[in-house]
UniProtKB/TrEMBL annotation:
Record SUPFAM superfamilies: Homeodomain-like, RmlC-like cupins
Source species of the chain: Paracoccus kondratievae
Keywords: Activator, DNA-binding, Transcription, Transcription regulation
Name of protein: AraC family transcriptional regulator
Pfam family, one: HTH_18
Amino acid sequence: MQPDLELVHIRKGESFAAWMHGYPFRTVRWHYHPEYEIHLVVATSGTFYIGDHVGSFQPGQLIMTGPNLPQNWISDIAPGEAVPLRSLVIQFPEAFIEGASASMAEMEALRPLLDRSRRGLLFDDETSARVRPLMERLVEAQGLRRLALFWEILDHLANAPEYEVLASLSFELDLTRISDGGINRALSYLREHLTEQIEEAGLAEMVGQSQSAFSRAFKRHTGTTLVRYRNQLRIDLACQMLLTVPEIKVAEICYEVGFSNLSNFNRHFLKLKGMSPSQFRATFAAQKAMVMAD
């Protein structure tokens, strides 16, 4: 089965994404993305897939994956159950790393880590325990403090005493075949222009399909329409901002993620999340405090 392209959104003025999510969540599917990822499981146990590797996970599992390595984590929970905080995630583009390497000679010490991560790396419990508080602080940090925590985390990973390489040497994702698919090309474009007004007719023309054929293919691939899918991505981005930038106002988030008016944003948020943005922020803050206290 071909993996879906995940749209990783890095906010303006930031070099990488640091966020958290619960379970179920939209990214929990067989997917890939061109960014590196550091993934720490906070709660639940289940089965994970990295390339052609299949294994079991539990709280504390720490994995780093390189660009375009397919992955998925499926938690074993009861039907209808929801977990408020399942994973802490850092995602950073290759261009950011290469740019830093070009200007900082010390970055060469990270090269072996970055190269090995292209097959996926599972770290030991001691490294996970050291990295978790840093990731928790990074999710809410701003400015230079974000960068300091980011480099400290990579330093821990680069000097980890033990790690397991996951995907086999023979595993290789056929990116040419995937990238040539019309829907994934459209998703890639949507990823880069999420906050802009993108019409279905324009995407259909871009991938060389009629609008009706594109609409059917898009719904078959994503399970929903372009408008609903885009609104879901924008609301997901709004949730990240509500959780990681506590001082930003709801109205500011509304316009930053691409909605044209506050009432429309609030209506879609309520429909998708079952509560208002302010309630979501307060509820998740309380749940997060409970989880962190365990």
